[in-house]
């Protein structure tokens, strides 16, 4: 049965473009279009859509307020239509916190041409979102483990994620103490959004979080996020780990790609490496996680029940890349436990 799609946007042009994109795929069925939240509410009651596209800026009731009400009253997969601005990226991250599954960035110029260029990506995201697991998480204060023998620069935590990953990464990082080993993160996200995501995490976490720059040292108590549109590799500079950025071709259809980060980290950190592969569509990161395990590092994948999309972790589990498969809430403590077991680290 085709996936029922409802388009909600105050722009007649965007409504028309999205309608055309949906109608061009036999696996999708457009059940309606709405210019505002109130019309959308009635159409949701009438058609019970499988997935909704939602704009942030709408008249009468903004998209975030509508999304919050929807998730509390009638949870439905939502793909946000976001603008490539700082304000748009902040609103998108808030939407993901409220329960949106994914987002599509509108081009700043040439909207009609730009939306058509991303037509296949939009359709793919709608299909994934329609089948995604709706997870409404509430903030839980967890005690932060102290007294870990992790002072030093040898040990390294690497985290990869895609769809559903912004909230999963946040949950893992919130549990890390200020003296955590250095962390590197690749989250599939376009340029313009990673800086806002890093800044948001930095305000919430005990460790310092920033968007990586080429040559940044990876230090204890800090986390570096791969910038959208650039691969991030881990390299050695003397006794230190540093981040290296590149515009090399996409890997597994992504730039940044998790496999690029994992593979490079396995080469230069080996058994000092502690790696987690979180929720996401596709298989990016699975082979890299296997390389880390074969190099002597610790590897964990998120379990199906706690994933928004059980794609990347499933692939990792199936090829034997994950030493453990754990619920999201257990991954942060597992990373810290490994940091304790590995003592002061080993030079490689």
Structural overview:
The protein is of the alpha/beta class. It contains twelve helices and 14 strands. The strands form three sheets. The protein has a seven-stranded parallel sheet with strand order 8-9-7-6-12-13-14, sandwiched between helices. A five-stranded parallel sheet has the order 2-1-3-4-5, sandwiched between helices. The protein has a two-stranded antiparallel ribbon with strand order 10-11. Helix 7 crosses helix 12 (328-341) and helix 9 packs parallel to helix 10. The chain is elongated. It starts with a strand and ends in a 7-residue tail after the last helix. The relative contact order is 0.11.
Keywords:
alpha/beta; seven-stranded parallel beta sheet; five-stranded parallel beta sheet; 12 helices; 14 strands; 22% strand
Number of helices: 12
Mean pLDDT: 91
Poorly predicted ranges: 146-151
Could you tell me the radius of gyration in angstroms? 20 Å
**Proportion in β-strands:** 15-25%
Give the biggest beta sheet. Answer: 7 strands, parallel
The percentage helix is 25-40%
Cα distance spanning the termini = 54 Å
The side-by-side strand order for the widest beta sheet comes to: 8-9-7-6-12-13-14
Give the helices and strands as they follow along the chain: EHEHEHEHEHHEHEHEEEEHEHEHEH
Described by the principal axes of the CA atoms, the overall outline is: elongated
Give the SSE map:
Blueprint lengths: L2 E6 L3 H12 L4 E7 L2 H11 L3 E5 L7 H11 L4 E6 L2 H13 L3 E5 L4 H7 L1 H13 L24 E6 L3 H10 L7 E6 L6 H11 L3 E4 L10 E4 L5 E7 L2 E7 L11 H12 L3 E5 L8 H9 L3 E5 L9 H7 L5 E3 L1 H14 L7
Parallel strand pairs: 1-2, 1-3, 3-4, 4-5, 6-7, 6-12, 7-9, 8-9, 12-13, 13-14
Antiparallel strand pairs: 10-11
Helix pairs in contact: 1-5, 3-4, 7-12, 9-10, 10-11
């Amino acid at each position: 049965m085709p996936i029922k799609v409802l388009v909600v946007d105050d722009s007649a042009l965007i409504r028309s473009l999205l309608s055309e994109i949906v109608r061009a795929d036999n696996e999708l069925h457009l059940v309606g279009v709405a210019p505002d939240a109130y019309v959308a509410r009635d159409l949701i009651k009438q058609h019970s859509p499988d997935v909704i596209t939602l704009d942030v800026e709408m008249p009468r009731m903004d998209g975030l307020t509508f999304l919050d009400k929807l998730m509390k009253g009638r949870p439905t997969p939502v793909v946000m239509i976001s603008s490539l601005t700082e304000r748009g990226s902040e609103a998108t991250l808030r939407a993901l916190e409220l329960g949106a599954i994914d987002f599509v960035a509108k081009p700043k110029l040439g909207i009609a041409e730009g939306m058509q260029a991303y037509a296949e990506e939009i359709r793919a995201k709608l299909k994934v979102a329609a089948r995604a697991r709706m997870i409404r998480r509430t903030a839980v204060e967890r005690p932060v483990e102290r007294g870990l023998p992790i002072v030093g620069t040898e040990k390294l935590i690497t985290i990869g994620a895609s769809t559903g990953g912004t909230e999963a990464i946040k949950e893992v990082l919130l549990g890390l103490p200020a003296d955590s080993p250095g962390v590197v993160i690749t989250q599939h996200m376009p340029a313009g959004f990673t800086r806002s995501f890093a800044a948001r995490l930095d305000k919430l976490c005990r460790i310092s979080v920033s968007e990586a720059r080429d040559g940044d040292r990876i230090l204890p108590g800090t986390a570096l996020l791969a910038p959208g549109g650039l691969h991030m590799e881990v390299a050695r500079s003397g006794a230190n780990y540093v981040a290296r950025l590149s515009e090399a071709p996409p890997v597994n259809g992504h730039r940044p790609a998790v496999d690029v980060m994992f593979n490079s980290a396995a080469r230069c950190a080996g058994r000092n490496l502690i790696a987690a592969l979180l929720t996401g569509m596709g298989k990016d990161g699975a082979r890299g996680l296997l390389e880390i395990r074969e190099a002597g590092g610790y590897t964990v994948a998120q379990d199906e029940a706690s994933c928004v999309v059980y794609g990347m972790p499933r692939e990792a589990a199936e090829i034997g890349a994950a030493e453990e498969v754990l619920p999201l809430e257990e991954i942060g403590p597992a990373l810290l436990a490994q940091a304790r077991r590995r003592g002061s680290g080993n030079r490689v």
